[in-house]
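All the exercises in this workshop are built on plain-text protein records. Sequence and backbone structure share a record, each on its own labelled line. The structure tokens are whole numbers drawn from a learned vocabulary of backbone shapes. The record below serves as our worked example for the rest of this section.
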Amino acid sequence: MRILIVDDELVGRMLLRKIVSQYGECDVAVNGREAVEAFRLAWEENSPYDLIFLDIMMPEMDGHEALRAIRKHEEDRGIYGKKSVKVVMTTAREDSGSVLGSFHEGCEGYAVKPIDKAKIEKVMRELALIK
């Protein structure tokens, strides 16, 4: 499994990488702009990501903008459903508007910080990425 971890905070990136690295190859990005570029590059290299953990609040391009750009890229190439990357939004925001907005924009999962192994593995099981 190829995994992209996107978070502007070093500690957040390191923690997520430690948790999920046992499940596959992990790359990191520090903002939404880098995430979209890494996503596009992975497709160009014919080695797309299976899972993206995407922080919502980041500088330059936030998680919502990045998610819309990723879904647009897939849409432009006719990639839908099971062929599309699974995106889990990670954030300190727990309000229903933020959660619903993320799902409306096309994420498959949502994990509220602080992140821990149990939360992440639960979301990954719900997405049938691990058993």
User: Anything to note?
Assistant: The radius of gyration is 13 Å. The CA atoms of residues 11 and 25 lie 19 Å apart. Helices lie at 10-20, 32-44, 63-76, 96-104, 117-126.
